[in-house]
Design a protein that fits this description.
The complex is a heterodimer. Chain A is an all-alpha fold. Helix content of chain A is about 65%, strand content about 0%. Chain A starts with a helix and ends in a 7-residue tail after the last helix. Classes of the chains: A mainly alpha, B mainly alpha.
Chain lengths: ~120, ~375
């Protein structure tokens, strides 16, 4: 039931944000010109597109994030039922985390956590 | 006389008749659909009023507090003590032209502020403001808040990329890397409280703190995770000292450099509302939410504390955390990107893991103050 209201509320939230944009569209002036619509890079004429291939640099951090975030998704249900599963649960999750931490240490030693 | 006094105390502290707007609405689902519709409209109106008020108050507070920290007076001209400055700014932004650069990806450029603002509005709906002031209570509350705030990152990345501006792109990439990195630490810190409370529902977490707030009930474990959460979430909302995504001196405005008018103000507003959300979450999980300051077993003390209405408790805790986050801005210099990554991956993450394990030991041995309550 709560989720039905959530869905309803999502729709209403979208309408709300849309209404704001509509108001602004109705009252704000609209006089475009080529110079105004060019990208603002501190007044310098832009050279080329920004949609080029470049070294993201966060790629390794992105991969690590994926691992740890999925692990966090496993931890949530574990945390909720922890009182029921007790020591067994602690040992099992401890082993699971140990594997991940070994991975983190490996990445650390390999220098993946260094910013270059 | 004494009887009347104790009756007042019971009324003030009594068993919390917590009920969300959605629950009230579903009760009247069988009798009248109009009542359900009225509840939903009221809830939406409440959110509109809250978002507007928060925007006005927080921006004014930020400017005034910044002024005081720097021995200035802050805005003074519009209205008494500059109180109407933000209202004036809002109208100015509403009347400004909405520019979409020719070379931008038009559809994505339009969608980005929508995502940012929509995510914040959705989170506001699940926060518990007082026993009766909560629109929805999801049984996965904490997970929901973390997941939906992820949509905000999508908005930022999309806005920066679609602008086809080099500064915006770099700002968005930095922001993305920063937010995903610090999200892990924030999640680990929140998990500690989920572990203590045994539930993810935000109302359930507040109710689990009737004998005392989690920040002090667990011999320091709660305090450590509160501090880790505060640092990580300050980074998640891109506030100084973690504001390299917007570093004005190098990237003009970062991911929203190509936005103007109301769509710029959506980004701006969602940043301030995010600060409120982060503080509200910290207040709810670690500082007891609307629960008054209780010490398990001290009935008289608890009754006296209960005389202050729950909503005031929530507002007070929330504003305190907001003030601390604003305070950070004028105390710590901006971090370099390598320092930023080192702080998260080499300091906060190991602390977070160790703290989670310590928390599970605390729960297992029932070693916190007032166990079983």
């Amino acid at each position: 039931m709560e989720y039905f209201f959530l869905l309803l509320f999502t729709g209403l939230a979208a309408v709300l944000v849309g209404a704001g944009l509509l108001t602004s569209y109705l009252v704000a002036p609209h006089r475009p010109n080529p110079l105004k619509n060019s990208p603002y890079e501190c007044g310098e004429p832009t050279i080329g597109q920004s949609w080029v291939q470049f070294n993201v640099g966060y790629y390794l951090f992105g991969l690590l994030f994926l691992v740890f975030d999925v692990e966090a998704a496993f931890l949530y249900p574990w945390a909720v039922v922890f009182r029921q599963v007790g020591l067994t649960g602690l040992i099992e999750m401890g082993l699971f985390l140990l594997v991940l931490i070994v991975g983190l240490v490996y990445a650390w030693r390999k220098g993946a956590l260094e910013w270059v | 006389m004494q009887n009347a006094m104790s009756m007042i105390l019971v009324a003030a502290t009594g068993p919390w008749a917590a009920k969300t707007v959605a629950e009230r609405a579903s009760e009247s689902l069988d009798t009248s659909l109009w009542a359900v519709a009225a509840y939903m409209v009221l809830a939406l109106l409440a959110v509109v009023v809250l978002v507007t008020l928060l925007g006005l108050v927080l921006i004014y507070a930020e400017r005034k507090i910044a002024g005081r920290f720097q021995c200035r007076v802050g805005p003074m001209r519009v209205g008494p003590h500059g109180l109407l400055q933000t209202v004036a700014d809002t109208f100015k932004l509403l009347l400004k032209e909405d520019i979409i650069p020719t070379r931008a990806d038009q559809a994505m450029h339009l969608l980005a502020p929508f995502l940012c603002m929509g995510a914040t509005v959705l989170i506001i709906a699940v926060l518990p403001y007082s026993p009766t002031m909560q629109i929805l209570d999801l049984n996965i509350g904490v997970l929901f808040v973390t997941a939906v705030s992820g949509f905000g990152v999508m908005g930022i990345l999309l806005g920066g990329w679609s602008s086809n501006n080099k500064w915006s792109l770099i700002g968005a990439m930095r922001s993305g890397a920063q937010i995903i990195s610090y999200e892990i630490s924030a999640t680990l810190a929140l998990l500690v409280v989920v572990l203590f409370a045994g539930t993810m529902s935000l109302r359930g977490i507040v109710e689990s703190q009737e004998a005392g707030w989690w920040i002090w009930r667990a011999h320091g474990v709660g305090l450590i995770s509160f501090i880790v959460y505060l640092i990580a979430s300050t980074a998640e909302i891109n506030r100084t000292p973690f504001d390299i995504p917007e570093g004005e001196s190098e990237l003009t405005a970062g991911f929203h450099a190509e936005y103007s008018g109301l769509r710029f103000s959506f980004f701006f507003l969602s940043e301030f509302i995010n600060m409120f959300i982060v503080s509200a979450l910290a207040a709810t999980l670690f500082l007891g939410g609307w629960m008054p300051f209780h010490i398990g077993g001290w009935t008289t003390f608890n009754n006296v504390m209960g005389l202050i209405p729950p909503s005031l408790w929530f507002a007070g805790k929330n504003l305190f955390v907001i003030f601390v986050i604003m305070w950070f801005r004028w105390t710590f210099p901006r971090l370099r990107v390598d320092q930023l990554m080192r702080l998260e991956w080499k300091i906060l993450l190991p602390i977070g893991f160790a703290n989670l394990m310590a928390a599970s030991l605390v729960v297992l041995s029932n070693f916190y103050f007032f166990p079983g309550k």
